[in-house]
Design goal:
heterodimer, A: mainly beta, 5-stranded antiparallel beta sheet, 2 helices, B: about 425 residues, alpha+beta, Alpha-Beta Plaits, DNA polymerase, domain 1, Dna Ligase, domain 1, 5-stranded mixed beta sheet, 4-stranded antiparallel beta sheet, 15 helices, 12 strands
């Protein structure tokens, strides 16, 4: 119940990705390296035993994740990071989960076009 | 003298090749890049060297070794990406996990190539070798990603399995065996064979060998005339499907190199880079339990000349600071010219738990200090404790890079798997 409420709240307070999203990000370079905290909704499917991000909120807009391209991990020191390379309808996000503090960071965003 | 016949045994060797590896993995990660010309370049600046073009970029003429600016001339819409080593290592480990479930007799030949020997393994119970190959392809698509395609070659030896894997890229499955090898050879050029490039082609041409069939039909004395070495016998066996390449070479050195974005010349300017390179390589060989008895420095200059010097020592090195001091001494003897690339390596590796005590140094204390620094760095990430010199004038220089030709680096990431 609480989860539905939270989702409704988020939906009402941010823009959803639409056919205009490409226009909104017309100034986005092909690949933009960033490093900023990002809100991510994360789900775990016990039947498929798979965990995946469902949507992200970036610059006050909500983007539903259409596809998980790749999930990989790496260590920095003893800290394990999970990297999710995901695509929405128009954009690509590289999301990194720090398993030490469970914080998410956006490290890269791109529109799949050449510079 | 009659020629040795082709190996009549059933083919049990599989060669798996992930084509355009880095670019394909990037396309897997970012679905918006699929079907588009993509390259992974050492640096994404115009002078950066292309290390992996995607299948689409290859079709437009983009090749490994080209500069980014040359690639952009051939293909203005080229997407240029910087390497993401952990992404590729992770895919390599996933691939390794898949192949290890079929046989324990497998060898990673590089980040994107594996050879498997299935002979006598239960994976073949109720299945043909090509059935196992199809299964591996299916699992790769399911467990790594649907865009990741591999070509698989099947043959009685490693060499021909590699040839077979190259017949129908990027998603082929071919077998070379006693029944079809002549047909396969007749469709290949000499340079289609692995390890046969310009110089070997000239060697073969000199003794009247112009095609792969000529090569196969040549008697051993003629091959001896061409290669003038034991290689002639190896080629004679390879082309007949007998195994000669099932050899694992042990590690003999550790090295790190760095291509400088701007031309530095003096030892003082180069010393921070030298410091970081020695820190990196010494922490790697210490982690693997080695000490070194030799240091080598190689420098490529902007005028396309090369200088190098290696020095052997009677004592064992394990401390980065000492390696740096000796490497710096070697650097002082190098010519003063603008440098393009600098490489440091340690050779004379020994695996020895005991240590020679010194008359003037407290070696045990030093070893303990180095071990503790390694432990702190391992806990908090590389270079949390490092010489101050390393950080002078360095802004992210000597980034993590991946060697996709050699396989020795991969041991460092796969030992625990």
């Amino acid at each position: 119940m609480l989860q539905f409420f939270l989702v409704d709240f988020v939906f009402s307070s941010v823009y959803k990705e639409s056919k205009y999203s490409g226009f909104i990000h017309i100034f986005l370079n092909m690949i933009q390296k960033v490093s900023e905290p990002i809100s991510v909704s994360f789900a775990y499917d016990s039947k498929k035993q798979k965990a995946y991000p469902k949507w992200v909120i970036w610059e006050n807009r909500l983007y539903s994740i259409a596809k998980i391209g790749l999930h990989h991990t790496y260590h920095e020191g003893r800290t394990l990071y999970h990297v999710f390379s995901v695509a929405t309808k128009t954009l690509f996000f590289r999301l990194v989960l720090d398993t030490e503090n469970l914080h998410w960071r956006l490290e890269e965003i791109s529109d799949g076009l050449a510079d | 003298m009659s020629l040795m016949p082709f190996n009549p045994n059933p083919p049990y060797i599989l060669h798996i090749d992930l084509n355009s590896c880095f670019a394909t993995i990037e396309q897997q990660a970012n679905p918006h890049l699929r079907g588009k010309p993509v390259v992974v370049a050492a640096y994404d600046s115009p002078g950066g060297c292309i290390i992996a073009p995607s299948v689409e970029a290859k079709r437009l003429g983009v090749r490994v070794g080209m500069r980014v600016r040359e690639g952009k001339i051939l293909c203005p819409d080229l997407c240029v990406l910087a390497p993401d080593p952990w992404k590729y290592r992770d895919v390599h480990l996933k691939l390794r996990k898949i192949v290890s479930s079929y046989t324990s007799d497998f060898t990673p030949k590089s980040i994107d190539e594996f050879t498997l020997n299935l002979e006598g393994f239960p994976a073949l119970r109720g299945k043909s070798v090509s059935g196992v190959a199809c299964d591996i392809k299916r699992r790769i698509r399911h467990e790594i990603g649907e865009w990741v395609r591999v070509s698989i070659g099947i043959a009685p030896n490693r060499f021909l399995a590699k040839v077979a894997a190259g017949l129908h890229k990027p998603d082929g499955l071919d077998e070379i065996n006693k029944d079809n090898f002549l047909d396969c050879y007749s469709k290949l050029k000499l340079t289609d064979l692995p390890y046969i490039k310009l110089r070997n082609t000239l060697r073969l041409n000199n003794v009247g060998i112009y095609t792969v069939l000529d090569f196969y039909n040549a008697p051993l004395p003629r091959l001896k005339a061409a290669f003038a070495s034991i290689n002639s016998y190896y080629w004679y066996l390879r082309l007949r499907g007998w195994e000669i390449d099932s050899v694992n070479f042990s590690r003999r050195s550790y090295g790190n190199s760095y291509a400088l974005p701007k031309p530095l010349s003096t030892p003082e300017e180069l010393s921070p880079i030298l410091s970081k390179l020695t820190e990196k390589l010494s922490s790697r060989f210490r982690k693997a339990g080695y000490k070194a008895r030799g240091i080598h420095l190689g420098i490529s200059f902007r005028d396309h000349t090369f200088w190098h010097k290696g020095v052997g020592y009677k004592r064992d090195f394990f401390d980065s600071r000492e390696i740096y001091k000796e490497a710096f001494k070697i650097l002082l003897s190098s010519p003063r010219k603008p440098v393009r690339e600098i490489a440091v390596s340690c050779f004379g590796l020994i695996k020895c738990k005991s240590i020679q005590l010194g008359m003037f140094d407290d070696v045990l204390k030093k070893e303990s200090l180095v071990r503790q620094i390694d432990e702190v760095n391992e806990r908090w990430g590389n270079f949390i404790i490092a010489p101050a010199k390393m950080f002078l004038n360095l802004k992210g220089a000597v980034p993590d890079r991946i060697a996709f030709g050699g396989v020795k680096e991969l041991e460092e990431f796969t030992l625990g798997v």
